[in-house]
Amino acid sequence: MALNNAPDLTKGPPRSPRVRLGGYTILPRMLDKGRATITGKHGEYKYACPLDERFLDFVGIDPGALKKQLASGKGDGEILEWISKNAKNKRTDAEIEAWSCYAERRVPADPDSRKYFTELQEKTAPKREDVCTWFDLLDVDDYVSFGGKA
Length: 150
Known about the structure:
The structure is a single chain. This protein is mainly α. 55% of the residues lie in helices and 0% in strands. It is built from seven helices and no strands. Helix 6 runs parallel beside helix 7. The chain is globular and about 45 Å long. The relative contact order is 0.14. The mean pLDDT is 95.
């Protein structure tokens, strides 16, 4: 299937998890991964991964239903409108802002997560002392994965 707005994630990363749409962090990145998955150009990225699931759970949207909307060729604004209409959990602007701010500051909370985080950081940016949050790690991993030097 050809989507005019589908990124090729074999050639570049999805948007940063910090980029917001409708106030939501994670959402634009997830949309990029969903569109790329539909066109078979997702590379190593996974749609509806644990990070995406945090957003999906927060709003109460089924990943399959969202993917169907993406496959229809809807743009970001149209998808946001669809989410607003179909979300099981209707959120206020203040709730969205609080959730997004929390997501941006999230750090590994349990031993297994800390171990995974540390292993990935050691692989991608071992000398960087400023990689503290999950979003920091995703941003540097995306950068290094496509030839950047950490």
